[in-house]
Amino acid sequence: MTTFLLNETTALDAGALTPVLTLSEQRKIDRVVVTHAHFDHVATLPFFFENVFGRRTPVEILAPPPVLAALRRHLFNDALWPDFTRLPSRRRATARLRPIAAGKTYRAAGLAFRPVAVNHIVPTFGYLVSSRSASVLFSGDTAPTRALWELADSAENLRAIFLEVSFSNAQEAIARASKHLIPRQLAAELAKTSREVPVYLYHMKPPSAAAIRREVKALKNPRLRFVEQNQVLEF
Ligand SMILES: [Zn+2]
Ligand SMILES: [Zn+2]
Q1: How far is the centre of ligand 1, averaged over its atoms, from the C-alpha of 124 (Å)?
Q2: Backbone torsion region of residue 220, taken as left when φ is above 0, otherwise alpha when ψ lies between -120 and 50, otherwise beta
Q3: How many angstroms does the Cα of residue 76 sit away from the middle of ligand 1?
Q4: At residue 115, what are phi and psi to the nearest 5 degrees?
Q5: Distance between CA atoms of 72 and 78, rounded to whole angstroms?
Q6: Under 8 Å between Cβ of 16 and 41
Q7: How remote is the CA of residue 235 from the centroid of ligand 2, in Å?
Q8: Peptide bond preceding 88: is omega within 30 degrees of 0, i.e. cis?
Q9: In the 8-state DSSP scheme, what is residue 58?
Q10: Which residue blocks in 107-202 are alpha helix, DSSP H?
């Protein structure tokens, strides 16, 4: 259930907005940048919009068009949940879908976001997120990719990479079928960029997490570490 809170007003993905943030923290959020439409990345959007209903300005959902199209069709459709892009009224909606282009930079709240298409079973985008003094790279869900690492090489002041690792080495077949990474692939992925910054691993499937931790430890790469729930990182 992936969510990164980038600053007080901006979240990346919405897998865990409502169970982790307090109501008053949720009310401060003005935009949610989305990597892709899979449920572990958007599942809490419906409850989040219920929680912030009645805002003066819409919360923006930012992603490249194919991601927004999937959200529009499958989530904001008045079937599973009310369509908050038209409530309480079309003119003063609670949510607004805002397309951003892959390869272009979008600026808001003192941050710049640059989406890059990665290699997953549905349209998915990693993001380079930059402030004036630092950049961090988020992989999104991905199998082996080149585009992500080209973006890493082009980044100014890159301080960290957040990289998915979803399954254990023994689950290589399911990782390949679902387009995710396993520990054995990490060294080859990281060799595609010259940037030697800390790498924070995330997106471990719960039944695989213990094996992944063992296998990553065995790699003996001091740059590799794991993101923990509620961890606060400053760059
Ligand atoms: Zn996914
Ligand atoms: Zn996922």
Answers
A1: 8
A2: left
A3: 19
A4: -80, 145
A5: 10
A6: no
A7: 24
A8: yes
A9: P
A10: 147-154, 172-178, 183-190
For the stretch 195-233, pLDDT in tens is 999 999 999 999 999 999 999 999 999 999 999 999 999
Q: How far is the CA of 153 from the centre of ligand 1 (A)?
A: 24
Residue 189 alpha carbon to ligand 2 centre in Å: 18
> Could you report the average pLDDT of every consecutive run of 10 residues in the chain (235 residues)?
97 97 97 98 97 95 98 94 93 96 94 98 98 97 98 97 98 98 98 97 97 98 96 95
**pLDDT tens digits for 7-18?**
999 999 999 999
Residue type at 235 in one-letter notation: F
Q: Are the beta carbons of 120 and 144 closer than 8 angstroms? A: no
Quote the CA–CA distance of 98 and 65 in Å, as a whole number. Answer: 8
The rounded Å distance from CA 40 to ligand 1 centre is 7
Nearest Cα to Cα of residue 4 among 91, 97, 113: 113
* Proximal ligand: closest to the CA of 43: 2
H helix and E strand count, the chain? 9, 12
The model's pTM is 0.97
